[in-house]
Amino acid sequence: MTRAVTRYALLSAMIVVISLFFIVPIPATGGFVNLSDAGIYAVALLFGPQAGWIVGGLSGGMIDLFSGYPQWIIFSLIIHGFQGYVVGQFRHKSLPKQAIGLILGAAILIIGYALATTLLYGLAAGMASILGNVIQSVVGVVLGIPLLKVLTRAFQYSYFKKGV
């Protein structure tokens, strides 16, 4: 249990730090685009749905807090947590099935934030958020795959290899 908590905390911190280096504000929607999806996808595929849910939700909420977008924290906890959980369900599947998991995760992000943006700022802003979230999801997949390989190697030889 201690190892799992430590692992989730370190992975969440890594995603937050990576994401805070690259934030593109979207004034029309009151939100921003970042690299969090790459980390969430990699963690979910490496460690499964529980890690995807916890790390996704925690890192998504913390990014909002530290980047000055507190109105998004609850939405990010739910959306990124659910995104990580669903992608993590495809952990031990074939590559084509993992691709389906990544597509479902992207759909959760895009639809979730479109709905949240609509709730906060109206339908026009919700529709405007779709393109930015599509871009964030695609970049997340493209960068998440190499990150998955790096994390796999790092955790293969680490203290965290034992236990959950």
TrEMBL record:
<dbReference type="GO" id="GO:0016020">
    <property type="term" value="C:membrane"/>
</dbReference>
<feature type="transmembrane region" description="Helical">
    <location>
        <begin position="99"/>
        <end position="124"/>
    </location>
</feature>
<feature type="transmembrane region" description="Helical">
    <location>
        <begin position="38"/>
        <end position="63"/>
    </location>
</feature>
<dbReference type="InterPro" id="IPR009825">
    <property type="entry name" value="ECF_substrate-spec-like"/>
</dbReference>
<dbReference type="Pfam" id="PF07155">
    <property type="entry name" value="ECF-ribofla_trS"/>
</dbReference>
<protein>
    <recommendedName>
        <fullName>ECF transporter S component</fullName>
    </recommendedName>
</protein>
<keyword id="KW-0472">Membrane</keyword>
<feature type="transmembrane region" description="Helical">
    <location>
        <begin position="69"/>
        <end position="87"/>
    </location>
</feature>
<feature type="transmembrane region" description="Helical">
    <location>
        <begin position="130"/>
        <end position="152"/>
    </location>
</feature>
<keyword id="KW-0812">Transmembrane</keyword>
<keyword id="KW-1133">Transmembrane helix</keyword>
<feature type="transmembrane region" description="Helical">
    <location>
        <begin position="6"/>
        <end position="26"/>
    </location>
</feature>
